[in-house]
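Technical annex, item 7. During the second reporting period the consortium partners agreed on a shared format for inverse folding records so that results from different sites could be compared directly. Each record opens with the tokenized structure and is followed by the designed sequence. A conforming record, contributed by the partner at site C, is shown below for reference.
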């Protein structure tokens, strides 16, 4: 279920990120450029309002800055800017800079999703999967994941990959398609994609088991702070040094844990697998 937004990825305003994941900071701009940006925002240009909101959120991080950031993001959202609608929805969900409003959050995110914004489509899929702010509906969730994944959204690719791993809804279980989706997400540097792909290589699912490749993908996920990958890496390190004698089973593949706005973790090594030691 949603966890007060604490697991929502974000380096600036935990949701008020630019589409590239990088934020425009006022301190990184010249005073003249910052003034031009504010003038454009005050003139009613939604893209400028979004960038000003991001800049303010990146600023000094005070409550005042966050509140002003949300105000500008809301102004852009009210002009039907899809990115702003999504980010304002996330702000409402988290209750940072504005009073928390989960139902209002879902309405804004849904509006952005219907306008084709892939991040919002994935988030709406997660909402339907968890039944948060909308009716719980697996089929609808998968439909949104499909749309966002087709647009190249790595989080949606991971979520759709989970669905194929489990054979959820109208999907037949398909490890090959899951691996394709995880590979696409991993190629974009998505830590969940890297972690999931690592596990597929570690378990030999739809691919020849290769602990070294699993280790490489897992290491990249760890560098991005992926907690589950850090635990997996310890086990893989043993297998890299002592590559024979351990058989990994494929039971308990999926954990039904929904992380707001991000991905559904796919599967982990079982406890007995983690506890195995080579003698």
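Designed sequence (site C submission):
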């Amino acid at each position: 279920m949603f966890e007060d937004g604490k697991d929502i990825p974000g380096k600036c305003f935990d949701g008020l990120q630019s589409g590239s994941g990088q934020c425009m900071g006022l301190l990184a701009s010249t005073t003249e450029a910052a003034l031009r940006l504010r003038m454009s925002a005050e003139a009613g240009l939604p893209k400028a309002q979004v960038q000003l909101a991001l800049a303010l959120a990146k600023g000094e991080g005070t409550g005042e800055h966050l509140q002003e950031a949300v105000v500008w993001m809301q102004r852009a959202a009210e002009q039907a800017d899809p990115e702003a609608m999504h980010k304002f929805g996330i702000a409402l969900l988290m209750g940072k800079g504005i009073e928390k409003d989960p139902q209002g959050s879902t309405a804004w995110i849904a509006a952005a999703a219907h306008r084709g914004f892939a991040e919002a489509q994935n988030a709406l899929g997660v909402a339907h999967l968890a039944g948060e702010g909308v009716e719980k509906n697996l089929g609808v969730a998968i439909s949104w994941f499909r749309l966002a994944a087709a647009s190249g959204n790595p989080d949606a690719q991971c979520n759709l990959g989970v669905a194929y791993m489990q054979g959820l809804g109208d999907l037949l279980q398909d490890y090959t398609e899951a691996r394709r989706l995880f590979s696409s997400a991993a190629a974009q540097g998505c830590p969940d994609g890297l972690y999931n792909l690592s596990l597929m290589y570690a378990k030999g699912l739809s691919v020849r088991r290769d602990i070294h490749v699993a280790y490489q993908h897992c290491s990249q996920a760890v560098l991005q702070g992926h907690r589950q990958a850090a635990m997996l890496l310890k086990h893989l390190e043993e297998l890299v040094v002592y590559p024979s004698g351990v058989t990994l089973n494929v039971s308990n593949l999926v954990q039904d844990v929904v992380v707001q706005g991000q991905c559904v973790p796919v599967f982990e090594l079982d406890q007995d697998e983690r506890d195995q030691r080579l003698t």
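Residues 1-29, 245-279 have pLDDT under 50 and may be disordered. The CA atoms of residues 110 and 124 lie 6 Å apart. All partners now use this format for quarterly exchanges.
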